[in-house]
Amino acid sequence: MMKGRGFSGSLSFSAAPARGRNFAEFPPRNTSRNIERGSGGSVRVTIIHTASLLNLRGSEFWVLEVARLLRDESLSVRVVNFDYARRYPKTPKEIKLRLDVVKEALGREVPLTRLRALSLRLPLSGSWRGTSVESTVDRYLHFLPLSRRFLRSLNDSDVVYYVMSQGNPAYLLVVLGTSILAGWKPVVAGIHVTPRIKASELALLKLAAKAGVLKAVHVVNRSHESELRRIGCEIEYIPNGVRYEKFYSDIETRVQQDHFRIIFVGAMTQTKGADLLPGIYRSMKSQGLEFTLEICTSGGELSESIRDWSKNKPDVLYKGFVQRAELSKQYAQASVAIFPSRKEGFPLACLEVQASGTPVVVADVPGLTQAVIGEVTGIIVPPQDVDSFARAVAKIHSLWKLQRQNYLVMCKKAQENVRDNFQWTGTVTSLCRLLLSVVRDR
C-alpha cells in the first residue's frame, strides 16, 4: 500500500484485501417479513435528508438508491426532504431537470414529502454578536422543522433514518427532539460526512442515546467509528455500494483506445479538491503527457472559477452536470479517474468508476482508501500533492501506452473489487437488518 510522501516501485497486480471492508456477513434477504408493524403489515421507515435532494451529490444519490432497495426488501419507505441548503441548481430549467431525476429514481413506490423548515435569527445584544454564543444559537434556529406534515410522517413511522450530510450534528439534534414529540420514535443516524462534534453536542447525543431515542449510528467510513462510540449507542459500519451491472463495461474495448482521457467527478469545492485541478493539470503538462481532462460536477462554490480556467484549453472539457445514464458512459470511456479530495465520507463516484473498469488515482484520506486497493485498482498518493497526482497519472499513462495488457489487468481488478465487495445488495441487506433490530428492541 502506498503511504508517505509519494510512491515508488512498479505496479503489482496480485489480489489484496481492501482496507476497512470486513463488515458483518450479510443475513438472508427479505428479513423484514417476520416483523409486522403498521396497517400495511410491514415496517415503516422514514428517511430524512435535510439538504435538498436536488443537489444530487453522494448523500442524495445514496437516498435515491437505498429508498427503492429497502422497498424491495418489503419495508414501507417514505422519504422526507427539506428543500434546504440547495446549493447547485440555479435556473428553473436545471431545477426541473434534477427534480425529474429524483422522481424517476424513487418511482411511485416511494412517497416523497418535500418540506421547508423555518430559519430564524435572534436579536442578540451587541456584546454577544460575533461570539460563540451567537454562533450556537444561530446554528439551532437555522433549522426548525415545525410542520404538521413532518410530525405526521414521524408519527406514521416505526423507525427514522436520518442522513447526516453536514459536519456538525445540530440538525440531527433537532430531529431527535422532534422524534420525541412524535412519540419517542427510534432514530438511526447515518453519518455520511466527516463529523465535527463539540463537547456540548456530544453530551446531548449521549443523553438522546441514554433516553432511547438515538438507537444506533450507521457509519460509511470506518475511521469515524472510534469517535462516535463515545455516544454510547450501537455503532454499525456499512459501506456504500453501487449497482454493479449498471456501470459494468467490457474492458476489452479499451484495447482500441487511442486517446488518454482523465475524468474528475465531484462537487466544485475545496473539500473535493477541485481547486487542485489547475495545479495537477500544469504538472501533467510539464511531464509532456498528451491527454484530455473531463470535469463532471453537480456544482459548487468553485464552479465559476474552474469553468473560467478551463476556457481556451482544448484539452480540458468542463461538462458540468451530467445525468446518470450519460455519466456511466463517461466512466467507461475514461482511461483514469482522479479524486484529490481533502475529506470524504465514502464516495460513490469512486466505486462507480471502478465498476466500469477504470483505474483511479486518489488522495490518501479515509473513505477513498477504503474503496481502493493500492497499486492494484489504482494509486494512492499524499493529499494536496499535485505533483504526486501528476506522477501517478503518468504511471498509469505509461501502462496504457506501453503495457496495454497490464493496464487491462488493472481495469479488471478495479471491476472485481467493486463486484466482490461493494454492491448495493449486501449494503442494503445489512442496513435492513440494522433497522429491524432497532424496531425489535423498542
Commentary on this structure:
With 442 residues, the protein is an alpha/beta fold. 39% of the residues lie in helices and 15% in strands. It contains 16 helices and 13 strands. A 7-stranded parallel β-sheet has the order 3-2-1-4-5-6-7, sandwiched between helices. Helix 9 crosses helix 14, helix 12 packs across helix 15 and helix 14 crosses helix 15. The longest helix has 18 residues. The N terminus is likely disordered.
Per CATH, which architecture of the largest domain?
A: 3-Layer(aba) Sandwich
- Count of domains: 2
CATH H-tier superfamily of the largest domain: Glycogen Phosphorylase B
Approximate shape: elongated
Helical content (DSSP H or I, runs of 4+): 25-40%
Rounded to an integer in angstroms, the radius of gyration calculated over CA atoms is 22 Å
| Tally of strands | 13
In round numbers, the mean pLDDT is: 87
Write the layout of secondary structure elements.
Layout: E1 44-49, H1 58-72, E2 76-82, H2 92-106, E3 112-115, H3 132-141, H4 148-155, E4 159-164, H5 170-181, E5 187-191, H6 199-211, E6 214-219, H7 225-228, E7 234-237, H8 244-247, E8 261-265, H9 277-286, E9 292-296, H10 303-310, E10 316-320, H11 324-333, E11 336-339, H12 348-355, E12 360-363, H13 368-371, E13 378-381, H14 386-402, H15 404-421, H16 424-440
Parallel strand pairs: 1-2, 1-4, 2-3, 4-5, 5-6, 6-7, 8-9, 8-11, 9-10, 11-12, 12-13
Helix pairs in contact: 1-16, 9-14, 12-15, 14-15
